[in-house]
Design goal:
The strands form three sheets. The chain has a seven-stranded mixed β-sheet with strand order 6-5-4-1-2-3-12, with helices on both faces. Strands 7-8-9 form a three-stranded antiparallel β-sheet, with helices on one face. Strands 10-11 form a two-stranded antiparallel ribbon. Helix 1 crosses helix 7, helix 6 crosses helix 8 and helix 7 crosses helix 8. It folds into two domains: 272 residues, Rossmann fold (3-Layer(aba) Sandwich), CATH 3.40.50.10540; 89 residues, formyl-coa transferase, domain 3 (2-Layer Sandwich), CATH 3.30.1540. It is 38% helix and 13% strand. It is of the alpha/beta class. The two termini are 23 Å apart. The longest helix is centred in the middle third of the chain and has 24 residues.
Length: 413
């Protein structure tokens, strides 16, 4: 019997998670947040993100920094040395009873460890084997980049999103959050669920391959049809949309707001609510066609109007009438009751500190099988013994693994 809290729609799925850093752990986090039993396989040194912090000032242990906690909540940890034969054999024991194995090593690493998809499929024909790396796997399509390492910024650059982000064509800009990791992680989570669904219906597992660069290109879908249909290679558009007006960010007395009022009725409501009657004197200039042809003039005119108000005044005048939102920083988000009402800032325990750590909650709300953040991230090897017992190893076998260093168990807090 598994020693874990049972909840969520995915509580009957077991995932062996060998991923590190952000992309892979974010994908498996989505599944863990909805109840999947995600068993995080770490080396004795632990996930790369464990040393990244940040840490609370009173943290005496520094084992659970914000980075690690954010994407490894709701998971269990087993520590195995996969460079040892005994450690690899232990992993194969886990795989026999698992639905999924996930890894984000560089291309060929698992093959060299004799833990390839083909090897593990022999242990469990229904196994879904998912990998996430910069440029994909040769099993689904190779290239000159197949062995290149990659991080978020590389995926953002080569997937095209940086080319359409920034104030102008001279300054392509990285998107703030690690979208080059996070978007591929989300695609991987979907791919895993689709493959598990197929395996349970057919008895046949499969290889699921997600490239970080492919994921970013998919998120950047608009520039694809702009290029091939409109014969246009789009560049950065600043904080406004290339063919919807007004649709972007505008200045206020105390910051910025976003306004999206491309439809004629929304545009009229906006101008009336902000007492911009001078923009409504010509019926032709209210129409979306004219506004699009004169988009820069319209953006400038709306900006001059919004600059006369505070964010609160604009919210009071057009909130709920025209799509709008204040540009909010994290302090603003923490103070807005909306996010508390949506349980988007749950808190988890921090070993070694008196503080609790808020993390970004799960955005997928379900009424019958609600997900959620139920447990802090694990210590390295916190669940080694229990997971090995569930895999069918007896106490003598477990103690031999621990004594040899092929596995390790965290003892106490």
């Amino acid at each position: 019997m598994s020693e874990r809290e049972i909840f969520g729609a995915l509580s009957d799925i077991r995932i062996i998670d060998l991923t590190q850093a952000l992309a892979g752990p974010f994908g498996t986090m989505i599944l863990a947040d909805h109840g999947a039993d995600v068993i995080k396989v770490e080396s004795p040194a632990g996930d790369l993100s464990r040393t990244a912090g940040p840490y609370f000032p009173d943290d005496t242990q520094k084992t659970h920094g914000g980075y690690f906690q954010s994407v490894n909540r709701n998971k269990r940890s087993i520590a195995l040395d996969l460079k040892s034969e005994a450690g690899r054999d232990a992993l194969k024991n886990l795989v026999r009873e698992a639905d999924v194995v996930v890894e984000n090593f560089r291309h060929g690493v698992m093959d060299k460890l004799d833990l390839s998809y083909e090897t593990l499929r022999a242990e469990n024909p229904k196994l879904v084997y998912a990998c996430l790396r910069g440029f994909g796997d040769a099993r689904t399509g190779t290239s000159e980049y197949i062995d290149w390492p990659a991080f978020d910024v590389v995926a953002q650059a080569m997937g095209g999103i940086m080319s359409v982000t920034g104030p102008n064509e001279a300054a392509p800009t990285k998107v703030g959050p690690g979208i080059g990791d996070i978007a591929p992680g989300m695609f991987m989570a979907f791919g895993i669920l689709a493959a598990v669904h197929h395996a349970r219906n057919s008895g046949q597992g499969q290889f699921v391959d997600v490239s970080m660069v492919d994921g970013v290109l998919s998120v950047s879908e608009r520039m694809v049809y702009q290029h091939f249909i409109a014969d246009n290679t789009p560049g950065p558009e600043g904080n406004h949309h290339p063919f919807l007006v007004p649709f972007g960010m505008f200045p206020t007395k105390d910051g910025f707001v976003t306004i999206a009022a491309p439809q004629d009725n929304f545009y009229r409501t906006l101008c009336e609510a902000l007492e911009a009657d001078h923009l409504l004197t010509d019926e032709q200039k209210i129409k979306i066609g004219w506004r699009l042809e004169n988009r820069h003039d319209v953006i400038e005119a709306i900006g001059k109007v919004t600059a006369e108000f505070t964010k609160a005044e604009i919210k009071r005048r057009i909130g709920g009438k025209v799509p709008m939102g204040n540009v909010m920083n994290m302090a603003d988000i923490a103070a807005d009751p909306y996010f508390a009402a949506r349980d988007m800032l749950p808190e988890i325990d921090v070993p070694g500190s008196q503080h609790k750590c808020p993390v970004a909650g799960t955005p997928i709300k379900m009424t019958e099988t609600p997900g959620g953040v139920h447990a802090r991230g694990p210590y390295i090897g916190e669940h080694t013994r229990s997971v090995l017992r569930e895999a069918g190893l007896d106490e003598a076998e477990i103690e031999n693994l621990l004594a040899s260093g092929a596995a390790s168990q965290h003892e106490g807090d």
